[in-house]
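Crash report, auto-generated. Payload:
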Amino acid sequence: MTRYLLTRLGQALVIVLLVTLITFVILHLLPGGAARAILGKEATLQQIAAFNHEMGYDRPLWEQYALYLRRLAGGDLGYSFQLNQSVSEAIWQRLPKTMLLSLGSTLLAVVVAVPLGVVQAVRRNRWPDYTINGLSLLAYATPIFFMGLMMIILFSQVWPVLPPEAPQGFTLAEVLADPAGLVLPTLTLSILTVAVYSRYVRSSMVDNLNENYVRTARSKGLSEGRVIVGHTLRNGLFPVITLLGMYLPALFSGALVVERLFNYPGMGLLFWQAALKRDYPILLGVTLLISVATVIGALVADVLYAAVDPRVRLKAGRS
Amino acid sequence: MSAPQEEAPVRGMWRQGLEVFCENRLALVGVGLFVLLAAFSFLGPLFYQTDQVHTDLTKVYLAPGDGHPLGTDGVGYDQLGRMMLGGQTSIVVGLAAGLLATVVGTVWGAIAGFAGSWIDAIMMRVVDAMMSIPALFLFMLMASIVTPTVPMLIVIIGAFAWLGPARLVRGEALSLRTREYVMAMRGMGGTGGRAVRRHIIPNAIGTVIVNATFQVADAILYVAYLSFLGLGVPPPAANWGGMLSDGLSDTFSGHWWLLYPPGIAIILIVLAFNFIGDGLRDVFEVRLRRR
Amino acid sequence: MGTRTRILSGVVAIGLGLTACSAGAGGGSQQQGGAQGKDTVTVALRTPNWILPISAPGFTQGENDIFSTALYRKLYSFQLDGTSTDNVNATRSLAEPPVVSDEGKTLTITLKDNTWSDGKPITTEDVEFWWDLVTTNKDKWASYKPGGFPDNIKDFKVKDDKTFSLTTTKAYNAAWFVGNQLNRIVPLPKHAWDKGDAKKTFEELTAASKDPKSYATNPLWKTTSGPWKLESYVPSGEVTLAKQEKYSGPDKPKLNKVTLRPFTGDDAEFNVLRAGQIDYGYIPPANLSQKSYLESKGYKVAPWYGWSITYLQLNFNNPKSGTLFKQPYLRQALQMLIDQPTISKVIWSGMAAPTCGPVPAKQGSPSGQGCAYPFDPVKAKQLLESHGWKVAPDGQTTCADPALCGEGIAKDTPLSFTVTSQSGFAATTKMFAEIKSAMAKVGVQLTIKEVPDSVAVTPACKPEESKCDWDMSFFGSQGSWYYPAFASGERLFQTDAPVNLGSYSNPEADKLIDKAQFSADAAALQEYNDFLAKDLPVLWMPNPVYQVSAYKSGLQGVEPQDPMNLMYFQDWSWK
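Recovered output after restart:
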């Protein structure tokens, strides 16, 4: 197990390095440099040159990259010219808010999705399955911004119980002081997740119910409940574990849209504004953070996967 | 999808598959929905001709009524005609990008999962790295580098959406390869390539098909998100996603006919693909069960 | 405002509408704009992030100008109502209007009696201190252009405590020089800031300005000349200005406190505006239909006209399309295909007005009638046909007779262009859909490419450069260009001018631009405007207002809103 962990950690580091490289290159391939986007149309060539020099954009790409990595190693994410603020400061201001939104909605989604998926698998092709399936498909098929809008109309207009806007506070405490405002964004983000998760739980459970060992268990006369909980559920949850890990970027994409929709001042909004203004340091910083989070997510998922399915562990440990 | 078991009577399998598919009423509804929406988009303009090229600023925001069953939009296009035009783009982009992503992803994932060792490590590290960058972020960057046109959208979405299927198929392959029959085959001296062809891919097909439906549906949704983020296909081209996100700003002014029709159309088409996928999965499941 | 994030504007607006019914509860206390005894005001404004009155490149946003003007008075303030000499606002300015001598080359300026917030008088030493800072550090000053101010000053001389003079290298039009050069001077508190060496002092001031966290606490920023003092400052958050009791100017603040509140986007701002929780805000373009609702809630809606023009840049240096753009008849034909009055009315909901030439029209004047080439597709078609083009409506118009088409245009050259436009503005997207359609009717194919920052990807360029492949560029969703007091064209349309992105060049235009800048002839600017209005260095486009402001009807002194985008909170008061 230790060896497996070490291997996976090494892989994780490689991925993070790859990510920094990919994003760095893509960002610098963009037409029109950051300088013009920031300094505006009045900027003189001298000012652009001075800006590029100050930010190091006039150096060769590989040198910039090396410089970026070196600063990164020292914990320095850079300085955002547009915000007149360091990147880490800007991110720390917003990260907790996005975490709150993402974790809240994921937790809610898992708690709802797993039982739903199990019920569907067990009552396959009967009305509970059809109903849940239909609903989750409907949720899945609705663009998240359309869904959010419907929620706003429903819960703010038709039945005005919730505010249509997320809390606008600048600190986590201020946000938490207005829990009502968090309901709609969290709900909107989690509905999509529920749809995706329950489908996978169902599909995986169905697959497992057909496995030989389940049939053996059944033939041995074990009760259906024991078969499901004791044998199938454990195996059936594997895909959910993988999904949790790999769903993070999708979750962030969703958060981006939800934050825009509900004006929630989190990382998504920060990123969106930075993308419009070519704020490279912010774009790099946010992407790096998200990718590190995803890599850690995938790592944890894989380790859990290995923990529940020794075959995977043995195999991967040998390679 | 070719029948995996060459030994089995192919015709019989198909007929049987069709029967199972037809048993799933939702699947039939899905097929019906898809045919309907496709006919509406592609054949509709033959019967209901509108000018979708020229704007008419004297006829903006007309409510549904005479001459314009679904009203007009902010530059005077007939909304019903626009729905047909938008449907063409949405369906074409969805199918093409979804298929592209699924094919690339399946091949990649199956090879990685079965090959194992360092090949798997390298291939999956590439996938991991690209996957840990949020899709919308990558789409936004790509779309601001190239002008979004229909073929470009297909390539952009296809180029990043294959990661999901790749990882899933690889996971499936990883668990399948340890199952009894593949183990047995290897024990008998079967080659790797043969195992992939004969067992892993056919067995992963359930997963792939479920995923493919999601991919087509996802591609249609991605186009919507791109439009929502301001990177849609420029006028006079249209797609349901773009129309929907445009419609958001019009709702407040009471122009409901610009919001709900494209919204409902997207939901229906995405639903249709999911229903079809469910039906197909039943088909494969039955086959697995019989083996 | 420059948030550029209006895509979603409508979305939450809907939400807002919904709260409309219940909104009374939230903002109830201040319904109908009534504000008995109220002496504070909350204003929607992005967080300023530069405090030093010498702006650094990249920090020239409007809110920074408003912020630093509230703390540090400029030497000259301006008003554009045409009632004063050289547009100088006598009340707000720190000095008397300049006296011109030496054939227009020397301007002598006398300071009025004013004091810093610590009681020390504002003297020519403080002007000289500013002068030293910018001359020794001009490469770090956003307003510096080589050859421009201060390079065009031969001599800066202090006569006494109250008087100093500037001698220019050549004679300028006084109105131009005052409005576009002297407008940059801001006397700075030498006694509080000077460290002896101009370079070192500047470095320290810049470093302090790059540390927004300390704005409200750093003693440097306590010595001010403006009507307001900084009470609190949260980076990317709220900023509070308090009345400066020791303010020496005549326009004493009437309110005690001004809170500047930033919003994450237009929708958020509008949400709060609708709930009545801010006293001054703006209506995002997508929500203009809500105007009457806001009025019923006790807001006054006031379009803020900018001293600006809006245009579609043509790239004369593009090896392909540039040859076409160089033909005046072609530019005229294209201009005749842009229906400015209808676009302004229908697409911009009346919150835009046609641009007819390089000098902005007087506020509120019914322009559009006076445009040299009004919308006329029939005439455009004839014009093209008479120049050898085979016009194919809804097809592809091509050159049939190269001799008539013009120099460098081969037979069968198509009229097909790509416009790089701004994404994120619904009205802009609709506007180009309309223009594309109008052009298609005479077989001119327009491809629309939307990017977040069109200015950045369409730089001025040489024909041989690869980045010179753009045809047309639009960046005027909030106005393409805002002028200083004197609306001359040396920055925009002169050959090789810094913001001449399309590389337009016409000797006659250059001459007229020079004349407006250097001669004392008051008619020169008009002459320049008339010539360029016809010569079409760019295609003129509907000019949107700076913003549609909405403020509580009990608030007085907000209007007229400064066309040069400053805000003078000291004039505001509650009824």
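Post-recovery validation: Strands of chain A lie at 79-80, 85-86.
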